[in-house]
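Hello again, I could really use a second opinion on something today. I've been staring at a protein lately and its backbone has me curious. Please have a think about how the structure follows from the sequence. I owe you a coffee for this, so here goes:
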Amino acid sequence: GSEYSAYLWEDGDTNQVHIADTTGIYHVIVWDEHNCEAYDTVSVRLKILDISASRLASPVDNCDFDSSAEVQLEIKNAGNDTLAAGSKVYVRYKLDSDPYVIDSITLSSELIPGSTISHTFDGTENLSTSGDYNFILVATTNNDLKASNDTLYDTISVYPEPVVDFGLEPDPYSIEAKELILDAGYGQYYE
């Protein structure tokens, strides 16, 4: 409306213009040049289109050395608006210092709020040595309103294979005895 001498919004804001960026109830009290007050209240339900990279589904921490590990990303509709069938979701990932692997998905059915889909990227990654592997995964779509959850950082670990040796030679070992105590040894994760 026309300019008033003072404004007070529900959150304490005193500007004439207020941004409603979440669903909720908004109200304002205004005062005119005669110090007369009026107020108005509105209930706002925003339709937020928001796709997030929610989880690295594969690979996961393991003890298996894999020279051809598939990368699978779980994508979530984190908004409150349905993403229509035929919509495109743009995905990419980066492993350590390698360049991004880029792909896109055309939804075959609608993606309702709170639901997820999984995408397996073409190609594989070589995780054949023990160590930590750092992934950056991104999912977005046209008109995605919240960029803060589009990127996921995840580290997976490939653990070295444990070594077990009874120390008995020759192998196979045979002994004539009532019993033999076998010690599998101490490992770093043994309790």
About this structure: The radius of gyration is 29 Å. The chain has no helices and twelve strands. The CA atoms of residues 23 and 101 lie 36 Å apart. The mean pLDDT is 91.
